[in-house]
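*** Query protein ***
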Amino acid sequence: SLSSNMIANLPVMFGEPDIVKALQTLPGVSQGMEGFTGLYVRGGDNDQNLFLYQGLPLYHVSHLGGIFSSFNVETVDRVDFYKASFPARYGGRISSITDIAMREPDFNKFGGKVSVGLLNANVYVTGPIIKGRTAFSAACAARGSTCCRHLHLPS
């Protein structure tokens, strides 16, 4: 298992923590092409991996032609990565299983985080709707040219 803190503390490309690139640092995992988010586990192909986000299967987990993964690290609580001996509840994949659990919203106080990298920007906010009973959690990410579209520099 990897926590969001562990992923955030790894060396990053373009100033952005990345779940798939963090998994590429594990033994038995290869990245394929340098700098891209492909995941090749123990000789398998990229499409032989199963990514689950809160139990929902994801079939394409990258943006900008594979430079960034689709996950905002601030929304992630835990990443369980299996290279072998998969639990029976997953089934159906040959190379690996990546099960990503979202962070619980904060039921008591408002908070959040904004991060801006070279080619991207992320926003994460959380807080109570009814203190102690109902809460929300929301995230937004902009990648590539959309990140800088509204940036106006003085001439």
Q: What stands out?
A: The helical segments are 4-8, 19-23, 145-148. The chain is about 10% helix and 40% strand.
